[in-house]
Protein 1
Amino acid sequence: MLKNIMRFYAQGFANMTLGRTLWKIIIIKLLVIFIVLKFFIYGDSIRDLGVDERRDFVLDNLAPLESTFTHKDTSTPL
């Protein structure tokens, strides 16, 4: 059963002319998209930083400044 399914797909891909070209174009486009995303969208990982740089990164991102917690009440009482 599994052998027949594999043979069916192998014959189908072997007989394709336009489809084979389209699949190549699709694969090339996907590779280009993922390469562009990797280099331009996703930044450096924290794994790439040294010990001191990691500590500073975590401290800066997890311990927000005190000014973000202060709230001035500008509303008038009812």
Note: The helical segments are 2-14, 18-41, 51-62.
Protein 2
Amino acid sequence: MAEENTPQKDLSQLSFEDALRALESIVRRLESGDVPLDESISLYAQGEELRKRCTERLQAAEARISKLTVDAGGAVTGAQPFGAD
């Protein structure tokens, strides 16, 4: 599991799953209400960076997924980018 205080330089190396786990850990800590204000602000900033990393990874995955197009007989006739209708 990724450390809660992942240095920013290591964010680009995190897998989606590790970034999401770290983000969930930060959310739990913030929701507990037991974190001092200054630490809450720092955690929020870390969480925002992790959210961006997760979004980037999801967008990269979407870009790699293709939607197959088929003709009336069910034969594959081509592919188009995910979300292009």
Note: The longest strand covers residues 76-81.
Protein 3
Amino acid sequence: MTNLRQSFKAARYHKRMTISLFIVFSLFLLLLSYISQLIDTQKFTLSYLLGKWDQLKHILPQFDTELNNRLGNSNDLIMAFYEHLRLLILVCSFIAFFFISLYFTHSRKEEIYSLNYIGIKRREMLPRLLLELFFPIILSLPVIFCILLVFHSHFLNESIQTNQKVMRHYFESEQMVPKKRENVPVTNTNESEKKLLPYNQTSILDVNITNNSNSHVFTTLLTNFILLCSDLIVAYTAGFYCYTTFGLRRRKLVV
């Protein structure tokens, strides 16, 4: 309890560092949340489109029956693309947290010297420094959650539009042109045209997605939060030991 109180006082004392960490962490958490929303949107879109094309095949049997496989292949490419984006964000966050750690350690080098002088080793200092990070990052969780709830409709619409652009990139429009197949009876033209009025090359990729439940939003956010916290701890530890090992060579520190 004493360490927690001291860490809170230290976080309040170093306001600029605390605020800067809060902003950077919140931005990366928001980016990860957006990628997660894109993944959820793509999963729903695939299910929705497969159902849509099942209806079209029932109306016009001469439509290409391999379209389901094409949708599945494009879905694999899109999901891989989103996972690569998530990995890129984590790598960028690791680099950002690493340099933040170097800056924080440099700003508090005299304090580190003093703690080391009274016999506190680096491996004992690190948990105290990490505990100070707890306050700004834990604050970002409810802040981002409130932002996602307030702007959830806009957030969802943006993810749908972005996902549609990605889908059109991976799933070319000419693949949606119907192909005549042998030994398949062609239905009456007028009757088919009436049934196909809701469908065209633009509307076929339109998807109506309902808002996610608050519990789903929070669960997804919490998963990204834990992932980003792990990234922060590893990056901050690496930055701390790198600076105290190579940046403070003039004064030998006790490990």
Note: The chain has a mean pLDDT of 78.
Protein 4
Amino acid sequence: MKFQFTVSAVALLAGLLVVPGLVGAEQAPAKERKKREPTEIRTLLEAGRASASWPEGMVIHVSACLGEPDAKVAARVPAEMKETWEFAAGQVHRVSFEDTNTKSTDHRVASRPFDSKDLCKDLLEGKAIEIAAEKGEGPKVGLLGSHYHRGSRSIEVTWKGETILHLYETNGPFLKFYRDSDARAFGALYERLASQARILFQSKPAEAK
């Protein structure tokens, strides 16, 4: 399913935004530091891929808050789809949010053992760095690979508390989509990561740590 628009100026969004009418929250931002160069990020990920190990202090947050399913599949999918996963060394966590006034806090509600050695490979082969550069071709589109017309999806990579990659798309309430080639890569990478967590959590949850 493809969603396309022709707005010439897109409002930039600093974090994961929710669909109007859907319950959701954005995570507390990582510490602000000088933006790392793509070459630094690639070197870090390539070192992890070469050693088949997950860099110490690295975490991936994968989140989605989607609504308005396509009419052709509306009877087979939920009216809303919300998920947040956190990949860390040796574990993946299911995360939920709690809102208090204007502040949102996240909580790990369940955990699974997870072999994180291939996550660097996933990010590199999934073209995370290229997507972040936003040099793709074609019209701006979003939510590719999903069954929904509105919402937000986000992939955030932090290292030692610093955000080094933040990929996201949203059309509610702001607009932020990638060009076609990057949008397709983003949708594929999102599913590549999120599906690993979904499969693990089909069994009984372990205690959160």
Note: The helical segments are 38-51, 119-125, 128-133, 180-200.
